[in-house]
Amino acid sequence: MSNQPSALDPQAVNHFDDGSRQAFMARFFTKLKVFDEVKMKASRLMAIEATCKALNKRHWTKVSPVFFEYEVDTCLWENYLREHNLLADNPWPWLDFPDPRDLSEGTSPIFESWLRNETAATSAQPSDQTHQVSEVYDEFDTSEW
């Protein structure tokens, strides 16, 4: 018996580190036989949009990038597993979360860009009011996801 933590042990993951958390999620979804890279990217886009809308609804204009990505991943986890009828048996594995007001590492560029686009769309003519989160999302490197 090895004393090494399991690759699927959430307590062995630095869940405040985007790369570690997202790698864990990919391994976990693979174990559940539901990992699909194309669907995951689409689900991430929907999670980004939902997170931005939720933060905007609370009238938040700045959040830390760590908090933002954590919230996106929480949303992705819940929606993706719910879609596969697996959420009840596999809740989000961590109870604590990063401080959204800790701006020591700056602010989330994805959320700021989304807010700019949202503000521009709101003040534009009705025919110009569509914007896609993929336009915002594509500005950032997603190769590690």
Q: Quick recap of the structure?
A:
The chain is globular and about 45 Å long.
Task: Write a concise keyword list for the protein shown above.
145 residues, mainly alpha, disordered N terminus, 5 helices, single chain
Explain what you see.
This protein is an all-alpha fold. The chain has one domain. The protein has five helices and no strands. It has helices at residues 18-31, 37-57, 65-83, 109-123, 133-137. Helix 1 (18-31) packs parallel to helix 3 (65-83), helix 2 packs across helix 3 and helix 2 (37-57) packs across helix 4. The longest helix is centred in the first third of the chain and has 21 residues, at 37-57. The radius of gyration is 16 Å and the shape is globular. It starts with 17 loop residues before the first helix and ends in an 8-residue tail after the last helix.
Topology as a string of helices (H) and strands (E): HHHHH
**Count of helix runs:** 5
Q: Largest sheet at a glance? A: none
- CA-atom Rg in angstroms: 16 Å
Shape: globular
Instruction: Please report which band the strand proportion falls in: under 5%, 5-15%, 15-25%, 25-35%, 35-45% or over 45%.
Output: under 5%
The helix content, as a percent range, equals 40-55%
Which ranges are low-confidence, i.e. pLDDT below 50, for 5 or more consecutive residues? 1-5, 127-132, 134-145
**Arithmetic mean pLDDT:** 85
Structural class: mainly alpha
For the secondary structure, the number of strands is 0
Number of domains: 1
- How many angstroms does the end-to-end distance come to? 32 Å
Biased composition (Acidic residues): 136-145
Biased composition (Polar residues): 119-133
Region (Disordered): 119-145
